[in-house]
Write a structure and sequence with these properties.
three-stranded antiparallel beta sheet, 34% helix
């Protein structure tokens, strides 16, 4: 693999879902084209992790609600919800 196509783990791309407003980040890959599409728009690219995290945390509550609402009802208990929220927030 050429270095041109390698992921730069110190750089990130932040995306926003056009349907529900949630955000997520992916690693930036040098040489790859990043474009808006019918599902996501780019909020920022070639961002350091800390800057990307700030942009994702803006929608943290929305991200968590969206994730929990898509879980099957039989998996939803107060304990599992608390565990999932802890994982998504990065609690140890």
């Amino acid at each position: 693999m050429s270095t041109e196509d390698q992921e730069d783990n110190s750089k990130n791309v932040v995306w926003e879902n056009l349907h529900n407003g949630t955000r997520f980040m992916t690693n930036f890959t040098k040489g790859k084209t990043y474009e808006n599409n019918e599902h996501h728009k780019i909020i920022g690219k070639e961002l350091c992790y800390d800057d990307a995290l700030v942009l994702v945390k803006v929608t943290e509550s929305l991200n968590i609600s969206s994730f929990l609402n898509n879980m099957p009802a039989e998996l939803r208990t107060p304990e599992t919800d608390a565990m999932v929220v802890g994982i998504l927030k990065g609690n140890k």
